[in-house]
Design brief:
The protein has 3 helices and no strands. It has 171 residues and is mainly α. It has one domain. Helix 1 packs across helix 2 and helix 1 packs across helix 3.
Amino acid sequence: MTESKPSKPTEPSAQNRASDAPLILRAVRYGAILTVAVIVIGGVIGFLVDGTTGLISALVGAGVTAIFMGLTAVSFLVAGRLGRLPEGIVIYYGIILGTFVVKFIVFLVLIISLRSAHWLNPTIFGLTTIAAVLGTLVVDVLALQRGRVPYVDVALPGEAGDTPVKSSEDS
C-alpha cells in the first residue's frame, strides 16, 4: 500500500492568475471611440470658430490626449507584468507613477513650446484637451465598472484536482 501525502495548497497556474489586461483593453477600446468623437466634434467646432487654425488646434488637442491615454494603458500592462503583486508592489506603483510624472513633464514642455505657435488657437486646443481628459476619466470609470476583476488569486476546490483536507474547525 502506498501512503498518501496530505494535499498542500498549490499556486494557481499562469493562465488562472487574475489579470487586468482585459479591463485595460476595454478602456483602450472605449478611449478610441472617445478619441474619434472628440476629433469629429472638436474639429467641427474648432473649424466653425477659427477656420483651419481651429481645426488643427482641436486635432492636436485630441491627439495629445489619445497618446497620453495610450501611455497610461501601456504603463498598466507593463507594470502588471513586471510588478507581480503583492511582492512587486514597489515596482508596480513605480512604473505607474513614473509614467504619470513623465507625462506631466512632457505636457508642460508641450504647452510651453506651443504657447507661441501661430498655427494653434490656444483656447480651442485647451478646451479640446480638457474635454478629452474628462472624457477619458469617464471612459476609465465605465471600463472599471463593467470589468470583472477578482479580488483574490486562489485555486478553487476542484481546479487543482486535489481533494480538500478538512480540519477540526471546519465541522
